[in-house]
From TrEMBL:
Composition skew (Polar residues), residue ranges: 18-31
InterPro entries from the UniProt entry: Pirin (IPR012093), Pirin_C_dom (IPR008778), Pirin_N_dom (IPR003829), RmlC-like_jellyroll (IPR014710), RmlC_Cupin_sf (IPR011051)
Organism lineage string: Bacteria, Bacillati, Actinomycetota, Actinomycetes, Mycobacteriales
Alphabetical list of Pfam families matching this protein: Pirin, Pirin_C
Disordered, as annotated region: 15-34
Protein name: Pirin
Species for this entry: Mycolicibacterium flavescens (Mycobacterium flavescens)
Cofactor: Fe cation
Occurrences of domain Pirin C-terminal (ranges): 202-310
Length: 325
């Protein structure tokens, strides 16, 4: 990790803080529990124990892996429905195949992002490709659920494929950190992801002993999730490590620093930066549906059972089972 790298000395630099700007303080730090998703792939439940109000407009996030699979071990999901939100799958290392009932799909690999707007209803599958199942290999990624406001709950489903070389690359003011802006903007430079809900999503690598200090929209919430390594967040340097989420309070800038000493297999601090404009609407979630009320979730189940989310294509991608030895 990471899959997409660059020489920070050649990239646009983020402007240093001005005297009028304030750092966002840390409001809470939580550690995500480990679990399993789909057909049995390991995840860290990154948002567990955090209030919905602090997360808004985000609903759910899993860190998938990081794991080096043996042959026959990789697992994914089978076909399943969604309505009322967007799924964002960011692959740091490895490969994941996607297909949906509205014609979207492809292979997500090494630094690429799949952005699927479920909107009014969609069926999809995410599964490791056959060669990964047969041979094993490294698998590491993130799946994030972004809520849609009431006005967009029934938007037409949409699929975006963002390749790793399409993200916007930036450097910290001292060159010690690399940022990959996937969606939204940082310091006036925008990422390629098109969103219904205004958000910023970026993956950053901070070298040992280096410090990242970036501007952040005051109207957005701010979350810092540690993918790997050890460091500190905020104006009083709250310590954080792999699998922890920091929720930040109000302010103009986010600061994250990497410890000078990192583990040999974790050479730098890797963090995901997330924020968005809160929707502040009622949320009723049940399984794969995120709506505003219980009655709307019941309707989603009825529409799914009636086939209104589209159909599994005749040439559908299916979970690959390893060959018998």
């Amino acid at each position: 990790m990471p899959a997409i790298t660059a020489d920070t000395l050649t990239l646009p630099r983020i402007a240093a803080a001005t005297p009028s700007q304030t750092q966002r303080p840390v409001r809470s730090i939580t550690t995500g529990p480990r679990g399993y998703e789909g057909e049995g792939f390991p995840v860290v439940r990154a948002f567990a124990g955090v209030s919905a109000r602090d997360l808004d407009p985000f609903i759910h996030m899993d860190q998938m892996g990081e794991i080096d699979y043996e042959p026959g071990e990789p697992r994914g999901t089978d076909w399943h429905p969604h309505r009322g939100f967007e799924t964002v799958t960011y692959m740091i290392d490895g490969r994941f195949a996607h297909q949906d009932s509205h014609g979207g799909g492809g292979l997500i690999t090494d630094g690429a992002t799949q952005w699927m707007t479920a909107g009014s209803g969609i069926l999809h599958i995410e599964t490791p490709p056959a060669e990964l199942v047969e041979r094993g290999g490294l698998f590491h990624g993130i799946q994030l659920w972004v809520n849609l406001p009431r006005a967009d709950k029934f938007a037409t489903p949409r699929y975006q494929s963002i390749e790793g070389d399409e993200v916007t690359l930036l450097s910290s003011d001292d060159g010690g950190a690399l940022l990959r802006v996937i969606a939204g903007d940082i310091d006036g430079r925008g990422g390629p992801g098109a969103t219904h809900t205004p958000i910023t999503l970026a993956h950053t690598t901070i070298q040992p002993g280096a410090r990242l200090d970036i501007p952040w929209n005051r109207d957005f919430n701010a979350l810092v999730y540690v993918l790997s390594g050890r460091g500190a967040v905020g104006p009083v340097s709250h310590p954080v490590e792999q699998g922890q989420l920091a929720v930040l309070g109000p302010g103009d800038r986010i600061t994250v620093a990497a410890q000078a000493n990192q583990d040999s297999n974790r050479p730098a601090l890797e963090v995901l930066l997330l924020g968005g404009r809160p929707i502040r609407e009622p949320v009723f979630q049940y399984g794969p549906f995120v709506m505003n009320s219980k009655s709307e979730v019941v309707q989603a189940f009825e529409d799914f059972q009636a086939g209104r989310f589209g159909a599994v294509p005749p040439d559908a991608l299916m979970p690959h089972r390893p060959s018998a030895s």
